[in-house]
Amino acid sequence: MAHPGRRDRAELFVDYLGLSETQIVKAGDRLSTDGKYAMAADLIESAEPRFPDSDSLKRAKRFAYLKRMEKNQNTDPFKFIIYLAVAAAYLSLPHMAHPERGCPVAALGTELIRSGPKVRKVVSKEMLTRLEKLYQRTAPHATSENRRQQAAGVLACMVGGLILARTLSSADGAQFLADCQGFLRDALVGETGPD
Description:
Largest sheet: none
Shape: flat
Number of strands: 0
Radius of gyration: 18 Å
Distance between the termini: 26 Å
CATH class of the largest domain: Mainly Alpha
Helix content: over 70%
């Protein structure tokens, strides 16, 4: 069963319901005012493919995510934004299309495991360094165990998501990367249910 993606929702809002950019931004702002930050962010993200250069959509999205994060994590919003920027850069179309320019683990993961002890030692050290960097970006108020799990989950989703996206067509891979980014965003703000 196929689930509607962002492009499908954008088509619904703009082509079938006839909503303008201004109307979508106003609806997003109203949802945010009512404390429905997840719904506001989802609405704005759904419209972005039709209005990719819209500053008002970017502003409304940023506000919804900052308020959503504030509501759920009560932590530094700038760390959250940096964390998502790292994930977005990694789970990007250029990174998907050019494995030779990106992360060697996503490009050669199974081959690296079969390598000799010297290569495995270098890869292991690099993975531990990446995990530590991700750990440093997790919510400082969480327990050490939760922070480790969050860092491991983010790294696994990023590497695994990129590997799986590369097995799909360009359009399906792009949607899969967007879905991985959405999952990570939701996981990082700590929401477990609807607003």
